[in-house]
Amino acid sequence: MAQLYFDDVKEGMDIATVEKTPTTKTLVQWAGASGDYFELHYDKDFAQSMGFPGPIVHGRLEAAYLTQLLTDWIGDKGELRKMSVQYRGNALPGQTLSLGGKVTKRYSEGGENLVECQIWVKNPEGKEITPGTAVVALPSK
Amino acid sequence: MVELKWASVDEIKALQGKKTEKVLGIDQHMINLYTDCIGDPNPKWKGSAPPGLITTAMISSGAVFLGIPLPYKRSVAAGTDWEFKKPYKAGDTLTTSHEFFELQDKSSDKGPRALMIYKSTHKNQNGEVVAISSNTIMSY
Asked: What residues of chain A lie within 8 A of the CB of B52, using their CB?
């Protein structure tokens, strides 16, 4: 996996978009892996009783995808320091989600090279259903 | 497993500050279940734990463990904040302190709505803080 260096990062730089298509099987896997057995994510009748068309994708699964977007981008020597996301829309299993980001700030603090980014998950209509921010620490060349 | 319960806003506010502690051993099987699910084949996660693992419900969700009732019929995750302080790996034991921090009543003429905020601190077997997290559940 390529290593990203602080020297190569510029404000406004894009994080390459990655697509994920969580299926109902993925939601079952997530329940087992995460311990989140809330029926909203696998029981159609329960989901409909709460006013949803059917089971919806776990917000934390979308957040997990975003952590992968970042750890893949920063390489082995980079470190994810902070991440915040807001869940503003729902994704349905089978939909292809686009994950991406953009560098908003690049600075040094306390002897560390830090980069702030906007990050997002977009649904197939292009709506940002899970926007957020992140801070990563990067090595210098 | 979450057992859904309901109560009034005032009854739930009386539970603000309720805490619990959970201990969880991190092993490679747990890491594999996580990386297989999200499709993350990074070889770094053989031994090292991906930061995202700590964001999963079994570790970071006070809502799962504290059993605080909900004020309204529907509820969804509204947002999360994480601060990753220190790497962790298979073989580590995480002790997480969960707190139901507060209920913010946001009801208006558009309808009932409340934000329920949970805060968690995750420490390793040496007592070092590995991560701090905050999760918000919206009930409406």
From this structure: 63-64, 67-68, 71
Give how many domains chain A has, as a whole number. Answer: 1
> Chain B: nearest CA to A128, how far in angstroms?
14
Domain hosting residue A89, numbered range: 6-137
Q: Which domains does chain B have, with CATH numbers?
A: 10-139 (3.10.129.10)
Query: Is A107 inside a domain boundary?
Result: yes
With bands split at pLDDT 50, 70 and 90, how would you rate the model's confidence at B2?
A: low
Q: Which residues of chain B have a CB within 8 Å of the CB of A29? A: 33, 36-37
ipTM for the predicted complex comes to 0.94
Write down the pLDDT at residue B5. 86
- Written as one string, the DSSP assignment of A27-73 is HHHHHHHH----GGGT-HHHHHHTT-SS----HHHHHHHHHHHHHHH
B25 — contact with chain A (CB < 8 Å)?
A: no
